[in-house]
Predict the structure.
Amino acid sequence: MVIRELSDVDTDRIFRALADATRRDIVARVTSREQSVSELASAYAMSFAAVQKHVAVLERAMLITKERRGRQQIVHGDPAMLRGAAQLLEAYEEIWRARSQRIEQILTEGNEKEEGHDRSERR
Amino acid sequence: MVIRELSDVDTDRIFRALADATRRDIVARVTSREQSVSELASAYAMSFAAVQKHVAVLERAMLITKERRGRQQIVHGDPAMLRGAAQLLEAYEEIWRARSQRIEQILTEGNEKEEGHDRSERR
DNA sequence: CTCTCGTATAACCATTTAGTTGTAGGTTAG
DNA sequence: CTAACCTACAACTAAATGGTTATACGAGAG
């Protein structure tokens, strides 16, 4: 559905677009209720142009779409693409999980090496 | 487990770390089989230092861990964190999906701004 | 001990990003 | 028509990114 093959470049764009709290917030907002660019802009402590750029980044990553309505541009989220992004990560996770099992198997046959170190760094 | 609250900064780091094909490949590789940094470096057409930096970015995003073994540093993926990242996107997608439904509901009850743009369900 | 290997880090460079202000164009309101 | 509004875009700046080469340092090998 809509997402078939995602190129590396597309994937880069999607992840990069999501790597900004303002943009994630924009996506959340417009998925909640479609809003014009200026409505969005008024919600953030930055210039209109900055918000407009963020919207452009999201649009380029295909995470939102714009629709011209009168003199304003209405922004709404693209659920299909969002789902696609989620699936993309799920797919990664699954591949990695499968490989982890193989590792485990290899370890249990040729082992002397302990695996369970606790990782929980945080700042 | 392991992933409870992910701050905005953490989320930024995770998405940004994944927004690079080389880094995604590194994560895939080390989840497949743990490898030293120099082993990894030999797999890419770039300098050792560049690869080492990519590894550092992934480590900072908590997507991989390093373990010193003799004079080499063994890199392996952190399945829990990867799963956490996947869940993060799933969570977004779910929120957005729920909100889409609300929109739909609102539209069907309080509408008068209906000008026939095709908003809504068909994903 | 000395040499080499694996890693880390520093200094540098080019490109991109995230923000700014300013300007221009199109659309609606009066 | 004119004024106000919404959007887009250009030009600029500061900071971050992704790469380079060179250097330093710890740990094993001989």
